[in-house]
Specification:
Number of domains: 2
Order of helices and strands: HHEHHEHEEEEHEEHEHEHEHEEHHEEH
Radius of gyration: 20 Å
Helix content: 25-40%
CATH topology of the largest domain: Rossmann fold
Number of strands: 15
Strand order of the largest sheet: 10-9-8-11-12-13-14-15
CATH class of the largest domain: Alpha Beta
Number of helices: 13
CATH architecture of the largest domain: 3-Layer(aba) Sandwich
Bound molecules: zinc ion
Largest sheet: 8 strands, mixed
Length: 443
């Protein structure tokens, strides 16, 4: 296959997305980092996310980074971060040019750290900044991946929306309360939090992104992965996990193999539709602790809700350059069928928000790399926050718009009259989730 045809297939979903354009693929991106930031956990998360995401958006990326050992609690602590990041980019795009070399004047420079270049991308703790130097963020050496990864996604979102010559707008994001407010003290994430039994329904771009970001913080969970689809070339740019060699393999199996390489051992996958899985239809009460519902296969939400699920958290990508995180606590929040009625049938199996679907009902599996990463990161953030005592996301949905400018918004899902959740027995649902880790949220 000629390179041009190869990349046309690969970027097909971007071409289908409203107002989206491919970055100038002849231009090199050079990633640099402040030395102190690069030695920190947050700085390393920023570099890994930047290489992973930019390598899927651009064909030419240079790492102007000295060899540096990764630190705890990254899954690959002790390995050289530069070699690791380079190998990951090349695996995702074997035809691309990914090099370790000094930045050139003609390169588009991405600088990670609080200061050291005219424009910086910097995240720490729950906070994220991208824009003119210096970063206004307070110092924070917490082992929290969310702010650092969010800063990189914000930077990449500006590239996706405005290209290489867009204005370096200053953006501050608070991933703890999903606002642009800074200043209030924020709780520290417990190290290596035990998340319990996670069942991921959907191992596509958003599902893999959720698990990818979770594993940067903790591997202390078990996972059961449901997905019947196989990896296609046009899926590669939107998942931080899929590599070119994974094409034609089961998505759930690829994700499981990735998680095993990260050190998670208690795992299984189900390469079938959810209703075909005995593990789902015959599941015991108190199991699992959390459902990550990152799929829209036909009727999947109804199937989940009709079997009285525990807490659900997931991310979606929309058609207006936005990503969102949504939580459903049983008996407290409106359910997922309130948001996705059965009629909103999405045949593609991607976690695309039908709310933003075109009015003519045409469903196209179109999304952008930075939106899938954003949806995954936002959901990972809310899953990690479950280990903070007394915390609940209020309201139960937050959105990140990335065009025309980066903007966070909070908008709770509303209860829908006539929804399946209205007819459920509270007593039976309580019994079904009794003993699961987050049952107390249903108070
Ligand atoms: Zn409902």
């Amino acid at each position: 296959m000629k390179d041009e045809d190869y990349y046309d297939v690969r970027d097909d979903r971007l071409f289908r997305y409203p107002d989206a354009r491919r970055l100038d693929q002849s231009r090199w991106i050079a990633i640099r980092a402040a030395p102190d930031y690069l030695r920190s956990y947050a700085g390393q998360v920023a570099l890994l996310t930047a290489a992973n995401l930019l390598g899927r958006m651009a064909r030419r990326v240079a790492l102007d980074i000295l060899p540096t050992d990764m630190v705890q609690p990254l899954p690959w602590a002790g390995e050289d971060i530069v070699g690791f990041a380079l190998a990951q980019m090349q695996a995702a795009d074997p035809r691309g040019e990914y090099l370790i070399r000094p930045a050139h004047d003609s390169d588009h420079i991405v600088f990670l750290g609080a200061s050291g270049a005219p424009v910086v991308t910097h995240g720490a703790g729950w906070l994220a900044y991208t824009g003119p130097a210096p970063s206004p963020l307070p110092a924070d050496d917490a082992a929290n991946p969310i702010g650092a990864a969010l800063a990189v996604i914000a930077m990449a979102a500006q590239l996706a929306a405005h290209g290489f010559d867009g204005p370096p707008a200053a953006v501050m994001l608070n991933s703890f309360d999903w606002t642009h407010e800074f200043g209030a003290p924020l709780p520290a994430l417990p190290l290596g939090a035990d998340l319990g039994a996670l069942w991921a329904v959907g191992a596509g771009s958003v599902g893999t992104a959720i698990l990818y970001f979770l594993t940067l913080a903790t591997r202390n969970f078990s996972a059961l992965l449901f997905d019947r689809d196989k990896v296609k070339r046009e899926n590669i740019t939107r998942s931080p996990v899929f590599a070119d060699e994974d094409i034609k393999s089961d998505k759930a199996q690829v994700l499981e193999a990735y998680l095993r390489r990260c050190g998670i051992t208690d795992m299984a996958h189900e390469p079938v539709m959810l209703h075909e899985s005995r593990k789902w239809t015959d599941r015991a009460s108190g199991t699992p602790d959390l459902v990550i519902a990152a799929a829209n296969e036909h009727n999947v939400r109804h199937l989940i809700e009709s079997l009285l699920p525990p807490v659900q958290i997931y991310g979606t990508t929309g058609r207006n350059w936005q990503a969102s995180v949504i939580r459903h606590v049983p008996m407290v929040d409106p359910c997922s069928c309130c948001l996705f009625p059965e009629t909103s049938y999405t045949p593609t199996g991607c976690a695309t928000d039908p709310e933003a679907a075109p009015a003519d009902g045409q469903q196209v599996d179109a999304a952008l790399p930075h939106l899938s990463f954003a949806a995954g990161l936002m959901a990972a953030a809310e899953i990690l926050k479950l280990s903070l005592p007394g915390y609940t996301m209020t309201p139960n949905r937050s959105l990140l718009y990335t065009k025309p400018e980066l903007r966070l918004a909070r908008a709770g899902v509303k209860l829908r009259q006539g929804c399946v959740c209205g007819a459920r027995s509270r007593a039976v649902h309580e019994k079904m989730i009794a003993g699961s880790r987050y049952a107390a949220l249903s108070g």
